Amino acid sequence: MAKFELKLPKMGESVAEATITNWLKEVGEKIEEDEAVLEIATDKVDSEVPSEVEGTLVEKLFGPDDVVKVGQTIAIIETDGDAPAPAPSSNENKEEANTQQAEDMVNQAREAVVSQDFSSSDRFYSPLVKNIAQEENIGLNELESIQGTGKDGRVTKNDILDFVANRGKNQSSTQPVAANNASAEAKTQKPAAAPISVNGDDEIIEMTRMGKMISHHMVNSVQTSAHVQSFIEVDVTKIWNWRNKVKNEFQKKEGEKITFTPIFMEAVAKAIKDFPMINISVDGDKIIKRKNINLGMAAALPNGDLIVPVIKNADRLNLVGMSKAVNDLAGRARGGKLKPDDTQGGTYTVTNVGTFGSIMGTPIINQPQVAILALGAIRKVPAVVETPDGDFIGIRYKMFLSHSYDHRVVNGALGGQFVQRVAQYLEAFDDSRAV
């Protein structure tokens, strides 16, 4: 028998840790190679951790809601060797007792850490900061009192470690600490919410973990960016007719369905190359101009939550490549198969509100980006058609583009010109292009 350490795998350059949400296997169960052992969650996406070997799960080192760092051992799997399994004996009982003792030690260590609930705070704290706070028994009042040096005053890893290092000096007398905590609590106390009455016929539904994250992310975005919108109507008749003409041939040739989304994404990527200052982020008083064009594609999940997988280097893809990327990410998003890296690094986001029949919308910017484009429903409408021989009323396929942008760094001229350029690319679509 040999023992294999199952470690939390690397999940992308910007992902350093994950939260265990659910164990799919119990101690004593057999595990096949590549079979999922547990489910994890990062700030962006849920995922599964498969086993690299075939064997039996003999030890779990963490439980649900525990935060684990990349590369850390999370379970022990016993693999079959050439030697036959030993018969039950006092040694086996001793080994079982040792295993139980190890589990008890892990449980005691967990109980020693005071479980803190930071959800009542209006401030954003990363999982790493909250994990350190729990390990160091830092209460919410103390955490709120830390002056953050990160973006928008966020508490960074160094901020909380500095606080821990100087904590003993700050606690030289208990009375000042109590006074400081009371002062911090008074400063951070938010206005009391209006009471909500609940009667016996009402149903109380707990928000999902992802729902809470989306809620905080949206509120943070509105508080961070000065949102302004521009709207423009686009004639997409050429695109509508071209897609109907080639969709069967496209699927037969490429093995992929051709939808409108990759065509729109292609136009957005072209417009970003024309207006690179829409592809930026704000860091305090500095502007970060992004080199790569990574398009986020907002996707609704079956449970109603929202996720934004990212098409990396979208400007380098032709229409076939864009179609494959869109279909792959959309399919894996609906099936819960996205990897954490699939949602990282976005520089501009597109959301399709027309999927649900909306003709336009005012989307909230996906931080730390500075703009987002909403695609409205395509409608068949009567419209004035201009020709060299005169104007006439014709049936056209039209849609609205709704562009939200951060007025701190994107003025009305840039925001309006950008969405106008997207519309120009769509209306100038070459309906004679080959599949």
From TrEMBL:
Q: Which cofactor does it need?
A: (R)-lipoate
CC per GO annotation: cytoplasm
**Entry's transmembrane regions:** none
Q: Subunit notes for this chain?
A: Forms a 24-polypeptide structural core with octahedral symmetry.
- Polar residues bias located where? 168-183
- Supply the Pfam families for this chain: 2-oxoacid_dh, Biotin_lipoyl, E3_binding
For this entry, the protein name equals Dihydrolipoamide acetyltransferase component of pyruvate dehydrogenase complex
What is the scientific name of the source organism?
Mesonia algae
